[in-house]
Amino acid sequence: MSFDSLSLRDELLRAVRAASYETPTPIQSKAIPPALEGRDVLGCAQTGTGKTAAFVLPTLQRVMQSVGDVAPKGPRPVRVLVLTPTRELAAQIGETFRDLGKFLPLRHTVIFGGVGYEPQDRALRGGVDVLVATPGRLIDQLQRGMVSLAKVEVLVLDEADQMLDMGFIHDVRRIVAKVPSVRQTLFFSATMPPSIRSLADEWLKSPVEVSVAPPATTAERVEQHLYFVETPDKRSLLESLLSRSDVTRALVFSRTKHGANKIARWLESAGIRAEPIHGNKSQNARTRALASFKSGTTRVLVATDLAARGLDIDEVSHVVNFDLPNVPEVYVHRIGRTARAGAEGVAWSFCNEEEREYLRDIEKITRQKIPVVDDHAWRSNVPFAVDTRGARPQGNGGGRPNNAQPRRVESRPGGGGGGGSRGGEPRRDHAPRRDAAPRPNEHARRDDAPRRDDAPRRDDAPRRDGGGRTHEGGARTSGGAPNNAGRGHAAPANAPRPAGGHPNNARPAPAAKPRDGGRDGGRDSGRDGGRDARDWRGPAPHKPPPRAD
Questions:
Q1: Where does the pLDDT of residue 192 fall: very low under 50, low under 70, confident under 90, or very high at 90 and above?
Q2: What 3-state class would DSSP assign to 88?
Q3: Which residues, listed in sequence order, are joined to residue 253 by a DSSP beta bridge?
Q4: 77 phi, psi to nearest 5 deg
Q5: Which of 291, 285, 297 is closest to 311 using CA atoms?
Q6: Disulfide engineering: 40 pairs with which of 32, 101, 104, 204, CB 3.0-4.6 Å?
Q7: Reduced to 3 states, what is the DSSP secondary structure of residue 219?
Q8: Shortest CA distance to 472 belongs to which of 442, 501, 513, 439?
Q9: CB–CB of 312/343 below 8 Å?
Q10: Residue 139: band (very low, low, confident or very high) from pLDDT cuts 50, 70, 90
Q11: What are the pLDDT digits (tens) for 445-454?
Q12: Which of 71, 185, 57 is nearest to 128 (CA)?
């Protein structure tokens, strides 16, 4: 099949030839015909298979059918909206619209975060036919009233699974709600998990499903190699591999932004020109690093997973997974940066002891074993605890092996107060010992034991002795008892049990004090906070005068 057989406009065919496109890729030959018919399309294909042109060409033709051959005058409404997760991918989609629409009287612009508003505002005020945007910046522009989506005819969601992974789903829902329900929707994703399938069922109407390869399969032309190496030796191994003459342009992936900066510094100190690119870099710095890498000035680009999607860079000879991704699908997207457009490429992956489980998940989802390279000086000597490259071991989730015998609990002879078993049954670990004395500082008490405030006290005993305060608020007594006396702290295990059946961890209340004297004994007795007892208990009882004998 050729592009001439796809019923494209002459202007588009001229642009295709100018871009050196020779024959359609599988995703293009399957997605373009139903899209030209106005059908919704659900596409699933590997990265680097030409998905961008698969929706750019039919949407440009659709817009030309709406506006006609003459460029419209005055403000132009947005007729095509393309949502994409990253700035780099948005910029590259904008470049594709520019290259394939160069002979058409249409306007397009790209908006994303990390840059100022003014240049984007000027483009939006003049009106655009095609708008490529990241969800966050588009929400900002909608709130500022700079753009309207009321006239959108075609909605394109590119890399939908990554937008879901990056947490854009709520923004995307808000945007889709502002787009007319009568529209054409083109939905493209590299993977098709159930969450993406449910979104497609919600937003697409009787779509034509297009899939050119099983989800999460690696590109056939990528030669993969696996190195078992521990973290301290990864730096030396990386420098050794990148020093080879066949490494003309390498993309190194780090799991963290800090790690990307550190790897780039290592390589620069070793004489290897490298630059980092990640989300903490300004958009201008990211653009400069990407341009330097594309031009060949920088031989190594160190990136986080933000660059695993959307970086359309020709002639990347090698991809290095310095850190294995903890999401297996990301591995497919990473190594898809090489062997693009029919070329061949090499992927090197470093795996330390902690990453061996990630390796097992990657090989499970890709359904292939990655060949291991053993002849290198930094081979890991850490043995495999289990066969992490085989099936997941079955177990109860604990740390004991499956063939371990159950823990044996020996029964103790005897019974009664000895803490032994009843009838020869083993004592359960969580059952309290009957003969155990209360531990120090143990606040538990028997439910049938009376509380301190319920304990009987002698009415004729004075509550005040020598000016000291009584115990109820934790205050000091005349005998110099510590402040925590009477607060429920346990008595020594060998202390005699007090009269009245109190347990060892409960002390009887102090002696009562007549109501005619001073303050109430506790700091928290009543709501008056320790005011004179007569303030709330009424006047003191009348005392007869002493008799004169």
A1: confident
A2: helix
A3: 303, 321
A4: -80, 155
A5: 291
A6: 204
A7: coil
A8: 513
A9: no
A10: very high
A11: 444 444 444 4
A12: 71
Average pLDDT over residues 18-31: 90
Model-level pTM? 0.60
Residues sharing a CB contact under 8 Å with residue 70, sequence separation 6 or more, in sequence order? 105
| Helix boundaries (H) for 7-159 | 10-18, 26-36, 51-67, 87-100, 118-126, 135-143
Q: At what angle do helices 87-100 and 10-18 cross, to 10 degrees?
A: 120
Instruction: Note whether 11 and 104 are within 8 A (CB).
Output: yes
Angle in degrees, CA 369, 373, 378, rounded to 5: 130
Smallest CA-to-CA distance from 53 within 80, 79, 5, 19 is with 19
The rounded distance, in Å, linking the Cα atoms of 96 and 200 is 25
Listed residue (255, 257, 261, 389) closest to 325, CA to CA: 255
CA distance 259 to 275: 12
Q: How big is the chain by its Cα radius of gyration, in Å?
A: 39
Residue 9 DSSP label: -
Length of the chain: 549
Alpha carbon distance 67, 414 (integer Å) = 97
164 residue type, one letter? L
The residues, any chain, with a CB within 8 Å of residue 34's CB and separated by 6 or more, are: 41, 208, 210
Contact at 8 Å (CB) between 438 and 505?
Answer: yes
Q: At 247, which amino acid appears? A: V
Angle at 180 between CA 179 and CA 185, to 5 degrees: 75
Amino acid at 476: R
